[in-house]
Amino acid sequence: MTGTDRLPEIPADTLTDAQAKAAEAFKAERGVPVFGPFVPLLRSPELMLCASRMGLYLRYGSSLPLRISEFVILFVARLWNQPVEWQIHHPIALKAGVAPETAQALAEGRRPDTMSDDEALAYAFSTELQHNRAVSDATYANLVARFGEQGAIDLTGINGYYALLAMTMNVGRTALPEDGPPLPPLVR
Question: In whole angstroms, what is the distance from residue 59 CA to residue 71 CA?
């Protein structure tokens, strides 16, 4: 991404009442101030709060193992060339058990050779959903056999939610934090 952050943090003394209340609610729910994708989303306070709550479910209440969720988040971050999302989730994915070689292949825009069977299922499902805008019967059946119907819906939610956050940060040109691994540019 190039250019200046279009939607940077809003100075506290210029927040509208709705923005200030939303920022307070965000901090109460998450224990941290508004950050990353929620900075541009604060321009629409109710959307930000709804997105935050959905994210809390998808990260911590989903029927999927954290390793699979984080693997798919890296997949989406790479697909949308979103460096902030990558930087936030790369260390979490590694800690959750995604192999460094698997994450590196995703970073390079390659299909990882080192995926577990569960990761390969999530990769096939996510690839079809994001590229074909649909999922084949075979891929759907395989995913449901492993993770159930709720898992299929939760995986769909993770794909859509993190695409929303990536799109928001790409539109806002959200600045990359200075710490953590950068997402290398994808050469197409």
Answer: 12
Could you give the CA distance from residue 1 to residue 21 in angstroms, rounded to a whole number? 31
pLDDT tens per residue, the chain (188 residues)? Answer: 456 899 999 999 999 999 999 999 999 999 999 999 999 999 999 999 999 999 999 999 999 999 999 999 999 999 999 999 999 999 999 999 999 999 999 999 999 999 999 999 999 999 999 999 999 999 999 999 999 999 999 999 999 999 999 999 999 999 887 765 566 665 44
Helix-helix angle 45-60:17-30, to 10 degrees: 10
What is the C-alpha separation between 151 and 182, in angstroms, rounded? 30
Residues, the chain: 188
Closest CA to 55 of 173, 180, 168: 168
Helix residue spans in the chain (DSSP H): 17-30, 38-41, 45-60, 66-79, 83-96, 100-107, 117-127, 137-172
Contact present, 19 and 45 (Cβ < 8 Å)? yes
State if pTM tops 0.85: yes
Asked if 35 contacts 57 with a C-beta cutoff of 8 angstroms, the reply is no
